[in-house]
Design brief:
The structure is a single chain. Helices cover about 25% and strands about 35% of the residues. By secondary structure, it is α+β, with helices and mostly antiparallel strands. It has a five-stranded antiparallel β-sheet, covered by helices on one side.
């Protein structure tokens, strides 16, 4: 399982990527999956074991208008579920 973080605009996505890379976290930027209808068109992928380490610095940099989804591979396809209470993970 991995997490996908969405942003309301591209500037926030770029700022978030830079912030997470400064924290030495393994992130990937990718196009927003068609199954997710929120966001600016790009998103950040991060491993399950790094998500808590990612959310705190984003919040510290006031990058908190995000969407968080977990992604699971099933039969060669990805499915996405929104994490509505991600603030509780801080």
């Amino acid at each position: 399982m991995e997490y996908i973080i969405t942003f309301k605009n591209t500037n926030l996505a770029i700022k978030a990527e830079q912030c997470l890379l400064e924290q030495k976290l393994q992130v990937g930027v990718l196009p927003l999956p068609s199954q997710i209808s929120a966001g600016c068109g790009i998103c950040v992928r991060i491993a399950q074991d790094e998500i808590k380490s990612a959310l705190a610095p984003l919040s510290d940099k006031n990058i908190d208008e995000i969407g968080l989804y977990f992604r699971v591979s099933e039969n060669g396809r990805y499915s996405y579920s929104e994490v509505s209470d991600w603030r509780s993970m801080l």
